[in-house]
Design brief:
Elements: H1 14-17, E1 20-25, E2 28-31, E3 36-43, H2 52-66, E4 73-83, H3 95-110, E5 115-125, H4 130-139, H5 151-170, E6 175-178, H6 181-191, H7 208-212, E7 217-218, E8 224-225, E9 228-237, E10 257-266, H8 268-284, H9 289-298, H10 307-324, E11 330-341, H11 344-360, E12 364-367, H12 372-378, E13 392-394, H13 395-401, E14 413-414, E15 419-420, E16 423-426, E17 432-435, E18 445-448, H14 455-465, E19 473-478, H15 484-489, E20 493-496, H16 517-533, H17 540-554, H18 563-569, H19 573-579, H20 589-592, E21 604-608, H21 610-613, H22 616-631, E22 639-644, H23 647-650, H24 653-668, E23 671-677, H25 680-684, H26 689-695, E24 698-701, H27 710-718, H28 723-731, E25 737-741, E26 746-750, H29 755-761, H30 766-778, H31 783-790
Parallel strand pairs: 18-23, 18-24, 19-21, 19-22, 20-21, 22-23
Antiparallel strand pairs: 1-2, 2-3, 3-5, 3-6, 4-5, 4-10, 7-8, 8-9, 9-11, 9-12, 10-11, 11-13, 14-15, 16-17, 24-25, 25-26
Helix pairs in contact: 2-13, 8-10, 14-29, 16-17, 16-22, 17-18, 30-31
C-alpha cells in the first residue's frame, strides 16, 4: 500500500499550526476556525514631542475604541522593528550634489545600526456558534422566510464593525492605512519567515498556510526558524500602575524584534463573572480555616486578617465598578517579544537587551523554553488559542502597554513628486530620519532660528539635495553669500545685486520685451508701482500717460527700451522726476536701466541681496522684476525657491501682500517656497503672519537656548509648538540639530554632515569668498575639483572618476 501518513490530520509541519486559510474579501482573511481578520498599518504619537496631557488624552481615546469590543473579538498590536541597510539611490545632474550624496551614502552604510519600526493592528472576530443562533430563534419570533445568519451575513457584520473600529483608531493615531491583499500576505509572511520580500496574492487565494510558510520551524527549548535562532520573551507580571507609553524605550533599541500584544476581549457579563470569581477567591483567603472556626466557637470577629488578600478584594471590587460604569472593558492579555539571529551568541545578547529594557519599566519577564513554540504561535496575528495568559487587564492598561507610541522617522517617499524623500538624516534611537518639505502638494516651509545656529548650512544642503528630483530648479535669494559656494558648485549662476560699481553682470532691462502685449501690461503695473513708491498720487491721467509712453517705446529697437527712454517719452514733468532715481542719471539706474538684460535664468540661480538691502527704495522694484522673470521658469517642474532673511520680503506691507497671493499660485506651479529667517518675530509680526503660518505646513526650528524665555516662548507657541517641543529646541545642539514640525509628525534630527558636504554648505566666511574668487580667477573649467583641492580634500577628487555622467 501507499504510505498515506503524510495526509493524516496530525500536525507535523509549520503550516499545520498556522491559522490562516483564505482571502475572502479585500484585505480580509478567513481563518481555519471560522474567524475573520483584517489588518491596518499605523503609526502612534512620538513621545518625545508629546506632553503628558496629550498622552493621557490619546490613551483615553484609544481606550474608548478598545472598550467597544466584546466576546468573540481579539485585538493584535505588533511592532516590527527591522534593520535598514540600504541607502536610497538617486541620480543627480551636477557633480557637487552627487559627491555630497555619495558621502552621505557611505556614512550611512558604514554605520550598521539603523533601524525602523512598522506597526500593525489586526482585528479578529469569531462569529457565534450555530446553536447560539438557534437558541435565539426560540426566544424571538421571525418570519417564515427568514433563514437566519449565513456566512455572508457574518462577514458583512465583521466588515461594518471593523470599519467603525478602524475609523475610531484613525481619528486618534497620526497615521492608519488598511492593508490590501498583497500587503496583508506580505505582513503575514514576515511574521513566520526570515526571508523578507513582497508577496503577490495568488489568483485563487486559498491554502494561505501552505503558501506563506517557507521556513522550517524547529522546536525544543531553543527553537529555530529556518537557520535563525529564536528567543521569545513573555511578560508575566505588571507594575502596580501603568502610564501612557510605559514600554516606549523598546522603540529606541538598535536591534530587530517582533513585539506582539494580544488582547482577547470579553463582554460585560463575562468580565463581571470572571472578576466576581476573583473577588470571592480573595475574600475567602482573608481568613484561614482555623480563624473562621475560632470565630464560630467564640462568637468574636478575628482581629487579624490577610491584608494582601483584603486589598485585592477592594481591587477586584474597583475593577467591577469601572466595568459597571462602562469606563473600561476587560480581557486576557498576552505580550511577547521575539528576537532572532543566525549567531546564537548574538541572539542571546539581544535577549538580554530586551530583558533589561522591559524589566527597567517594572515588568517581570520569562525567557520561554518549554513553552517557546506555544508562545511564538500566540504572537502570530489571528492565533487566539496558544499561550493565553490568565490574568485579565483593563482596556486602559492595554492602551498603556501596547506598542502605540513610536519614533517618527519621516516619510520614506515624497508622495507629491512620487520620488524618494528630500534627504536622509539621523535621529535618536538608532532610527534614520527622512526629511520631506512637502505635506500633500504643499512644499512651502519656514526655517527659523538665531544667527549662528546653522540656518545657512541647512538651506544650502536642502538646495543641493533637491537636485535629486528630475528637471528640478533651485532659485535662492541670499544674504551674506552663504549659498554662494553651493550655487557655484552646482553649476549655477551667482548674481551680486547692488554689489557692482557700474553696470555689470547684475544689470537688468525690465522693458526689453514690452512689444509683447502681456509684458507691456506687466510693465505698466511695475512702472506705476515705482512712481507710487515715490509718493506720487497716480491719477487716471498719469496712468494714461505711462501707458502711452510704453506703447510708443515698444516700437523702438530693443536696446532702446530702457527706463531712460521711457522717461524721455513722458509728457509730465512729475512722472519724469519720479522715475529719475531709477534711470542712469539716478542712484539706482545701474541696476534697472541697462540696454541689455544680463539675466539668463538657468536651473540654479542665486541672488545676493546684502548690498541691495542697504538701499531700501531699490528692494521692491528689483525683487518684483526678478519675481516676474522667475515666473517664466515656473512651468510645472519641481522648483525650490529659497528666501533667506525673509524679513526683507515681509517688512514692506505691499510686498508682503504679494507674497500671500504668490504662495497660493506658486503651489499650483509646483514651486516650494522656503522662508529662512534669524528671528521668528519677523514672521510672527508680519501683516500676513496667519496666512504665512497656514501656508507653510512644514517648519524647521534651529536650536535656541533662549526659547524658554517668556517672550520667546510665546512666539514659539504661536507656531503651534507645545511646552515639550520648545524645551527640545532649547536643549538642541547648535549647528548640528534641527527640530522639524509638520502635520505628519515632529522630530529632532541631525544632518550628520561630512567634510565634503561642509565644504560646499558651510564655506561662507570672508576667507572662503576670497578662495572662491581665486578659484574662479584660475579658471580651468573644473570648479568642484579645484575648490576641493584648495580645501585640502584632494581625496574626494578620486570619486569624480566614477561620477555616472563621466562614464
Amino acid at each position: 500500500m501507499f504510505n498515506l501518513r503524510e495526509y493524516q490530520k496530525r500536525p507535523n509541519r509549520l503550516a499545520d499550526y498556522l491559522p490562516w486559510a483564505a482571502l475572502i474579501a479585500p484585505g480580509i482573511v478567513l481563518n481555519k476556525d471560522g474567524s475573520f481578520q483584517r489588518t491596518a498599518r499605523y503609526r502612534g504619537p512620538d513621545l518625545d514631542s508629546s506632553t503628558q496631557s496629550e498622552l493621557v488624552a490619546t490613551s483615553a481615546r484609544i481606550n474608548d475604541a478598545l472598550k467597544r469590543f466584546g466576546s468573540g473579538w481579539a485585538i493584535f498590536f505588533e511592532a516590527d522593528r527591522h534593520e535598514i541597510s540600504e541607502y536610497p539611490k538617486s541620480d543627480f545632474p551636477d557633480l557637487a550634489s552627487w559627491l555630497v550624496e555619495q558621502e552621505r551614502k557611505g556614512a550611512f552604510e558604514a554605520d550598521l545600526t539603523h533601524y525602523d519600526s512598522t506597526f500593525y493592528l489586526t482585528l479578529c472576530y469569531l462569529p457565534p456558534e450555530d446553536r447560539t443562533n438557534k437558541a435565539q430563534d426560540l426566544l424571538l419570533e421571525t418570519p417564515d422566510n427568514d433563514k437566519g445568519f449565513d456566512a455572508r451575513d457574518h462577514l458583512n457584520a465583521f466588515i461594518n464593525q471593523s470599519d467603525r473600529a478602524f475609523d475610531l483608531f484613525a481619528g486618534t493615531l497620526p497615521e492608519l492605512e488598511m492593508l490590501d491583499d498583497d500587503e496583508t500576505l506580505t505582513y503575514l509572511h514576515g511574521t513566520i519567515s526570515t526571508k523578507r520580500h513582497p508577496i503577490v496574492s495568488p489568483e485563487i487565494p486559498l491554502y494561505l498556510d501552505a503558501i506563506l510558510a517557507d521556513c522550517a520551524l524547529t522546536g525544543g527549548l531553543a527553537p529555530m526558524l529556518g537557520d535563525a535562532h529564536m528567543r521569545i520573551i513573555t511578560i508575566t507580571s505588571f507594575p502596580g500602575s501603568t502610564t501612557a507609553g510605559i514600554l516606549d524605550a523598546l522603540n529606541n533599541l538598535g536591534i530587530s524584534y517582533r513585539w506582539s500584544s494580544r488582547f482577547i476581549s470579553m463582554d460585560k457579563v463575562e468580565a463581571i463573572k470572571v472578576l466576581g470569581k476573583y473577588r470571592r477567591q480573595w475574600f475567602a483567603k482573608r481568613k484561614s480555616v482555623m480563624s473562621i472556626l475560632k470565630e464560630v466557637m467564640t462568637n468574636e470577629q478575628s482581629v487579624l486578617v490577610d491584608t494582601d488578600a483584603d486589598n485585592k478584594v477592594f481591587d477586584a471590587d474597583a475593577a467591577m465598578q469601572e466595568l459597571g460604569g462602562d469606563l473600561v472593558s476587560y480581557g486576557y492579555f498576552t505580550t511577547t517579544i521575539t528576537v532572532w539571529d543566525k549567531d546564537i551568541a548574538l541572539v542571546d545578547e539581544k535577549l538580554r537587551i530586551v530583558e533589561r529594557t522591559v524589566n527597567s519599566a517594572g515588568f517581570t519577564t520569562i525567557n520561554e523554553t518549554v513553552n517557546a513554540i506555544d508562545a511564538w504561535l500566540g504572537s502570530l496575528p489571528g492565533h487566539t488559542y496558544a499561550n493565553v495568559r490568565q490574568p485579565i487587564i483593563s482596556s486602559l492598561n492595554l492602551a498603556h502597554m501596547t506598542p502605540l507610541s513610536s519614533v517618527w522617522a519621516g516619510q520614506e517617499y515624497n508622495e507629491h513628486f512620487n520620488a524618494l524623500s528630500l534627504l536622509m538624516a539621523e535621529t535618536g534611537g538608532a532610527t534614520p530620519f527622512r526629511l520631506n518639505l512637502h505635506q500633500g502638494d504643499v512644499g512651502h516651509s519656514i526655517v527659523a532660528g538665531p544667527t549662528g545656529a546653522g540656518k545657512s548650512v541647512l538651506v544650502s544642503l536642502i538646495a543641493m539635495q533637491f537636485r535629486r528630483y528630475d528637471d528640478s530648479q533651485v532659485y535662492i535669494f541670499d544674504k551674506g553669500g552663504s549659498a554662494r559656494t553651493a550655487t557655484l558648485a552646482m553649476g549655477g549662476t551667482w548674481f551680486d545685486l547692488g554689489g557692482a560699481d557700474d553696470i555689470g553682470e547684475a544689470a537688468f532691462q525690465p522693458l526689453a520685451n514690452i512689444d509683447e502685449a502681456n509684458k507691456r501690461v506687466w510693465a505698466h503695473e511695475w512702472i506705476c508701482d515705482l512712481i507710487a513708491h515715490e509718493e506720487i498720487v497716480l491719477t487716471p491721467e498719469y496712468k494714461e500717460g505711462i501707458w502711452s509712453a510704453l506703447v510708443s517705446l515698444s516700437q523702438a529697437p530693443k536696446s532702446e527700451r530702457t527706463l531712460t527712454g521711457l522717461s524721455a517719452l513722458f509728457q509730465s514733468n512729475v512722472l519724469r522726476q519720479a522715475l529719475q532715481p531709477y534711470t542712469l542719471s539716478g542712484p539706482h539706474g545701474r541696476l534697472l536701466d541697462a540696454d541689455l538684460d544680463k539675466l539668463n535664468l538657468g536651473s540654479v540661480q542665486c541672488f545676493e541681496m546684502e548690498e541691495l538691502m542697504h538701499t531700501k527704495s531699490t528692494v521692491l522694484p528689483v525683487l518684483t522684476y526678478l519675481f516676474h522673470r522667475l515666473e517664466e521658469k515656473f512651468d510645472g517642474k519641481p522648483t525650490l525657491l529659497i528666501l533667506d532673511e525673509a524679513w526683507v520680503f515681509l517688512d514692506d506691507p505691499e510686498f508682503a501682500g504679494r507674497i500671500r497671493e504668490w504662495l497660493k499660485t506658486l503651489r499650483k506651479r509646483n514651486v516650494s517656497v522656503v522662508f529662512a529667517t534669524q528671528s521668528l518675530s519677523d514672521i510672527a509680526n508680519s501683516s500676513i503672519a496667519p496666512a504665512l503660518i497656514e501656508s507653510c505646513p512644514s517648519r524647521i526650528f534651529l536650536p535656541n537656548e533662549r526659547a524658554l524665555e517668556p517672550q520667546q516662548h510665546k512666539i514659539y507657541e504661536s507656531f503651534g509648538l507645545n511646552v515639550r517641543q520648545i524645551a527640545i529646541i532649547s536643549r538642541a545642539a547648535s549647528k548640528r540639530e534641527y527640530y522639524f514640525q509638520s502635520s505628519k509628525g515632529n522630530r529632532l534630527f541631525d544632518l550628520a554632515l561630512g567634510p565634503i558636504a561642509l565644504a560646499f554648505t558651510a564655506s561662507s566666511s570672508k576667507q572662503d569668498h576670497q578662495l572662491l574668487d581665486r578659484v574662479i580667477a584660475e579658471g580651468g573649467g573644473d570648479f568642484v575639483s579645484s575648490f576641493l583641492t584648495h580645501k585640502n580634500l584632494e581625496w574626494a577628487n578620486s570619486l569624480i572618476d566614477i561620477y555616472p555622467q563621466n562614464q
